[in-house]
Every structure is written in C-alpha cells, then in structure tokens.
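so the lab meeting is tmrw and i was supposed to have these ready like two days ago... anyway. pasting both below. for each one the top line is the aa sequence and the line under it is the structure tokens. i havent really looked at them closely yet so no promises
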Amino acid sequence: MEWYLPLIWGLIIGVAVIMYVILDGFDLGIGILFPFARTEKERDTMMNTVAPFWDGNETWLILGGGGLWVAFPRAYAVVMPALYLPVIIMLLALVFRGVAFEFRWVANTSRRWWNTAFTAGSFVAAFAQGVILGGLVQGIKVENNAFAGGPLDWATPFAFICGAGVVVGYALLGATWLLIKTEGPLADWARTKAANLLVVVLCAMIIVSVLTPLNFERIAQRWFSTPNIYFLAPVPLITALLAIAVWRWLRAGKEMLPFFGTIGLFLLGFLGLAISTFPYLVPPSLTVWQTAAAPPSQILMLFGVIFLLPVVLGYMIFVYWIFRGKVREGEGYH
C-alpha cells in the first residue's frame, strides 16, 4: 500500500472538518444567540448576516463525510453504527434549521415559532457535533475490525461536556462574526456577549483538557511522557496567550481580530485533538492505514477532489467577497 495516500486523505478530511466547524460554526452560533436578541429587527439583521453563506458553509460537512466513506470505508463502517444516534440527530437538526431559516421570512402569524425552530435546530446540531467529538475521543469498542459496542456507548458525561463546549464555542464565533457584519447597538451587544462567552469557552476548554488525560490513559501518555511534554507544552501556552489577546481586542473595540482570534482557538483545539488521537482514525484501535480503501480507489477519488476543491474554494471566496461589508437594519439578501 502507498503509505502516503491515507495521510493525504486524512489531511483532506481534516481540512474539510476545520472549514465546516469555522464556517458553519459562526452561523450556528447566530442561531444559538437568536433568543437573546432584544428585538425582532435585531434578529432580522442577525439572520441577514449569514443569509448568503449558511447553505454553502454546509458543503464542507458533505466533503468530510463523503471523504471518510470513500477513503476510509472501514472507519466509516465502525464510526457510523457507534455514533448513529447523534449523527442522525445532528442531520435532522440541520434540516429543521434550514426549513426554519426559509419559512421565517414569509411567516407573519407564526414567526415566533420559526424563531424557536431556528434556535432549537442550531443548538441541537451544535450539541450533537460536540457529542460526536466526545464519542470519538473517548474511544469506540472494536472487535474483528467491526463495531462491538452498544448503541448508547457514546452517551457519557464526557461527551455531553464536549457537546456543551461546542455550543458555547459556536456562540462565541457567532458573536464575533456580528462584530464584523453589524454596527451600532447590535454590535455593542455582540461585543458584550463575546466577552462573556470567551470566559465560558476558556472554562470549557480547561475542563475538557483536564478530564481527557484523567479519563484516558493513552492520551495522558501522549501528552505527559518525556520527551513529548517538552514539545507539546507550547500548545496550551499559545492557547492561553491567544485567549488573552482576543479579550484585549474585544476591550479595545476591534472588529475583525476577535473573530480570527476565535478561529485560532478552534484551530489550536483541533491541533490538540490531532495530537491526542493520531494515527488512530477510530481510537484507540484502528489507524488511518488499517481503515484505508484500496490505493486505486483513493487515487481515483483524489483526482476528483483535485479538480473540485479549487472550484468550491473559488466559489466560497467569490461569495464572501460579493457580500462583504456591514449589514444594516432593514437591509438583507433574502
């Protein structure tokens, strides 16, 4: 087997997951913040800030899931039955949220119900994604290269804490996105929310960072054995320094820097996840090489990705450029 092919596909799927978390994360965050807005006009403006982008952002979820299916079919066959319930709940919540997004604009007498549906879909989707992450980190029981656990193995306090952490993280992304796209009282409100959420996100990151090595010996060994600890110590240190920088940017009235700083916190969290689990795609037993498809299949699909990925990136850049700038009250794209 060409040893490098699974690594290339692992990188592609990792990039797709990162892009999805960042891009769909801020518009899910808008939905999570939705019930806390002070007026219906503010909710209209909040929704208009993501109206041109939200459906395109979900493209990366398809690439990540489809890439796992074609490049690592054995991992897909194990992960899906292990996490079937949270995955289905996430997908249904995203569908429910999308329907609410469209119907809210044309609803008059039932708008408050669609507001609730939009918020519930965003919250449930974000929470389910965190639970899926926690379920992967804590490990999946595998025997004879097949899932050997129960349908509720993922339902642990650790997974639920991860779910809550993703919810507040997305809310922080949404609040900092509003700093870029809005102005006036709404932007001031978003800045206050972002500062509060930053504190909660840091608490969630600390709790997860402490619980992970305490509960999973393999991860503790990875981080705290020598000489690993000397090479990996900068990761939490850089995270702390970046969090302090985001706090100062919020206090200084910066618009774009808090958003990109929050993205940096997510990237550092993703790096910590990669350090904790690599080379296992199905922790703690199946590696990227053990779960990879046959090399001809990987190469064939790789040619498709090579041609399509630049198109997706080009479209994304074009849309974000066209709809750049502030969204003011009464303006929109719907």
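ok protien two:
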Amino acid sequence: MATPLHAALSRRERQIMDILYRRGRATAGEVMEDLPGEPSSSTVRTQLRVLEAKGHVRHEEEGLRYVYIPAVPRHAARKSAVRHLVETFFDGSAEKAVAALLGGEAARLSDEELDRIAALLHRARKEGSR
C-alpha cells in the first residue's frame, strides 16, 4: 500500500508544500521568502531535495536555478490528508468527522454554507443509491 502523501511530511515540509501550491512554482529563494522564521538557504534547499526524494516535488532547471513544482495535484494531496485524518482521529468514520466539524462550528456557518453542505449530502445520498 502506498504511503499517504502527507504522512511523511514534517511541519516545515507542509509549509513548503503550501507555498508551492499557492505559487504554482518557486525557486528555493522564493520559498525562503515566504517561510515563517528565518530558515537558512541551505536548510530550505535540503528540505526541497528531501521533498523531491519523497515524490512530493519535482524541479525544472532554468539557467542556473532550480524551479520547484508540486509533483502531486493539490486535490490529491488534500484527499489523502483528509483520509488520514478520518482514519487516525475518527476510527475511519466520516460521520464522526462531520459531527466534530459541525459540533461547535455549526453556529459560525452561514446559511449559504449550510445549503452547500446539504447539497453535498443530497448528492452523496443520490449517488450512493445507484
């Protein structure tokens, strides 16, 4: 079984991936500019190489610079992260995960957001009965 995409990422690696997803592509220097704290250039370059070895990032050479690009579409990484979250914290139960999300947060959801959630549930029920 393949390792979940996010499972092998440290907090800093997730931050780097967020930057790459947001920018689409970036050099190590651009990643360094967007990272919190003051990471050294060599640390950022090392972390980018590690992410590449793990299969999360690829690079293209532009002159003397490496430009890093996410190797996995964000939606695939998101699905993997949610699947891991549900398995780890909610015993694999989507119902428990949704209940936790809506528990205290439901009061802060707008009518429009609740309507969209209801539509997603309706679609899931309809597709499940096929």
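from a quick look at the 2nd one: The domain at 1-89 is CATH 1.10.10.10 (Arc Repressor Mutant, subunit A). The chain is about 60% helix and 10% strand. will dig more after coffe
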